[in-house]
Amino acid sequence: MKEDNVIRSLSALAHEARLRVFRALVVAGQQGLTPSALAEQLGVAPNALSFHLKELAHAELVTQERQGRNLVYRAAFPTMNDLLTYLTENCCQGAVCMPNQAALCKCY
To answer: How far is CA 15 from the centre of its chain?
Structure first.
């Protein structure tokens, strides 16, 4: 993962509402959630939620898919895993401190 992508991802997550949205989408897994379900679950106003989803999408942390009249948002697990890998690649002074498989989410 390139450093500018890491900065964009971390910047997107550095807001309470966006972090809560992203975590809710991680929990939802491949099923994803509609904006109305997210707004209800998190108590976020729909117009604010739209802005936060746009920021997360710009950072490539979420994807959206149109299903009929609805949009379904999902966490972008490959991007999340790339970010985690980047952040931990030199932990423990370069020694392996945990199995790589444990650090990665295989929900996609």
So the answer is: 12
- Express each pLDDT in 10-57 by its tens digit: 999 999 999 999 999 999 999 999 999 999 999 999 999 999 999 999
Q: What is the pTM of this model?
A: 0.85
How many other C-beta atoms are found inside a 10 Å radius of the C-beta of residue 15? 14
Whole-angstrom distance, CA of residue 13 vs CA of residue 20? 9
Asked if residue 11 lies in contact with residue 61, where contact means CB atoms within 8 angstroms, the answer is no
Three-class HEC string of the chain: CCHHHHHHHHHHHCCHHHHHHHHHHHHHHHHCECHHHHHHHHCCCHHHHHHHHHHHHHCCCEEEEEECCEEEEEECHHHHHHHHHHHHCCHHHHCCCCCHHHHCCCCC
- Cα–Cα distance, 74 to 72 (Å, whole number): 7
Q: Report the C-alpha gap between 5 and 59 in whole angstroms.
A: 7
